Amino acid sequence: MELQELLQRALKMEEDGRNFYLEGAGRVKNQLAKEVLNHLADDELDHIERIKEGYERITKNEPFATKEIQGLKRSSREYFENIFTEAQKKSQELIKHEAEELDILKTALDLESKSHQFYSEQIGEQSDEQVKQFLDFLASEEYRHYNLIFNTIQYITNPTDWYYQEEKPIFEGG
């Protein structure tokens, strides 16, 4: 796939993802799900801006380059904890989930999985190291988003099991 076509496709995927997350955030009642979807929409906007920046450079026959991306990377756990803390501040009690909310989150999970796969496959097709690094960044972002959504689904469907799996409590005998 040519670089220009790749960036056009990536831009469309990110825009579609952002629109889906914003629409989903407007439909869910669960505060954690709402926070997650809003944060994902914000991340997609950042990706859109970076893709546009790269696209502009190649259409002007300039070398592909984007702003520094290393400082943006955070672990999935850190990301989830920050969003969870925000959700708790806005709602004393996380509202019970509804079936539609789970459908939205499961669709989001599928979108992130497909985006990750697309970016990962495209890395091998590119020769420019900066393009490869950018695609690797996007792939890792989609993987982080996938983990965030997966954790959110696990938490809102069964918080006790989620806590046990994530926190790995130590039981003392006596």
UniProtKB/TrEMBL annotation:
This protein's species is: Thermatribacter velox
The protein's matches in Gene3D superfamilies, at most eight in alphabetical order, are given as:
1.20.1260.10
Domain Rubrerythrin diiron-binding span(s) in chain numbering: 5-148
**InterPro entries noted in UniProt:** Ferritin-like, Ferritin-like_SF, Rr_diiron-bd_dom
List the protein's name. Answer: Ferritin family protein
Q: Which Pfam families match?
A: Rubrerythrin (PF02915)
